[in-house]
What does this fold into?
Amino acid sequence: MPPMTHKLAGHLLIECLIAQGVTHAFGVPGESFLAVLDGFHAHAERIRFITNRQEGGAAFMAEAQGKLTGRPGVCFVTRGPGATNASIGLHTAFQDSTPMVLFVGDVASDARDREAFQEVDYLSFFGPSTKGMAKRVERIDDARRIPEYVARAFATAMNGRPGPVVLVLPEDMLTQRVDAEPLPRVEPVQAWSDPGALRTLRELLLQAERPLVIAGGGGWTPQAAGALQRFAENWQLPVANAFRFQDCFDNHHPNCAGDVGLGINPALAARVRESDLLIAIGPRLGEATTGGYTLIEAPCPKQKLVHIHASAEELNRVYQPTLAINATMNAAARSLEVLTAPPGVAWGQWTQACHADYEANVDVANGGIVLPGSIDMPLIIHTLQRHLPADAVLTNGAGNFASWLHRFYRYHGLVKGLKTQLAPTNGAMGYGVPAGIAAAILTGRTVFTIAGDGDFLMNGQELATAVMHGAKSIVLLLNNGSYGTIRMHQEREYPANVCGSQLANPDFCALARAYGYTAERVAQTAEFEGALQRALAAPTGSLIEVLLDAEVITTRGTLSAIRDGALRSRA
It folds into this structure.
């Protein structure tokens, strides 16, 4: 008779997650990891398994969990189809630099390498590489080493450039009995800026006339955001947020210059080009943030570039900076905030002008945006700003609809202590709905999701997950009967040959009610405020469908024009 300390490996795995501070895991059940599900049942008071309706939605929820907490989001899927469905969330975590661990139930060891039922070579499929979908892919064959593999996965996911890790779990391994115990909670290692590099950075600042900070990427905490703000205040620096990292720096701050990404304010694009010193803190400077590598030219920028990043492998990979600093965000920002500033700087008016450009761009009355139809989207976003609490979490997937939120909503920023923006930098459609539901489950805060009609139906079935787990999100669904981004491109490149972008939609309100959400349709701008107030007061989740004229995509001066500058720069 084995000692009483022996336990199922599947139970040990759950105990290891609890030791790492995991309280929720997302997934779709599979017969390949029944022993793990039994472990969730045994420890139900300490950790919850959130049952999803599709693996892509589960992986998106885990990715959102990683963004919200700064620690790896956790997802469980079964072999083959389950793993391939989950790959979209893994790719999002990779490009967004989000810590995440994907557990994949696998075929039994005695069936491996025979193309057994649903068998996949996960190392080949997921990477790892600088162009792959995971930082590390490992299979646990020995149940006694589960604590080692889990601790390493969490460390790998958080350290350096954060990202996803895949752990493959053979079915027969999970049913072994072992007497191993979990390892202690892993904390990310802080890499500090080189003192000599900081002195060089100070010298570059003193020589500059038009400096500009671009903040973004993974690894930010409220403490790091606060230190960044103090650095900007000490040196009177304008700060722009990288694409879909708009909550890194408070948008209400007088040093805020806006966001650098798709649909960039033309005035800010000009400021980036005119700058004589760019200080990129955290972003990897991908295609969207750099205007297709033209706003900041690759490989040798015209501006002096200081690139600060948590991964040494990321530095000098695309850009050859004037100064490269390998440091994590907490350490980098804390080093920068104590960098001695002179009594006065030469660029005070430059910083004020950058902020004035931003203020003009978010002014709903500015720019003469007149939309066809009866919906005024800038005014709707302004209404959101007035009614949503400051700690509300806003989520979106990919599509032109998100441009309204990115341009006109002002995020309070991590400096207030909470992350408020969840959005995929890799342009994954279907992200917003599950990410919002995850945020509601994990935080209990007000959650607002904006989605297009095409985007919503990618993962709209996860409303059932929200209802099942008592989560409440508000979904604003912009219905224009098309895949709007593709239609916009077609209208510009092949205006007489629109093909494949039209959609035949269901009754979205009826669909939402079928899941258990309240729902109503808005056809006039004036109707939206009341609908939003009712949604905020409702005890359940709500969907507000806004009927948007398809010509909003194509009419000059509207959405096409808002995004045109960034898109043309990538042509």
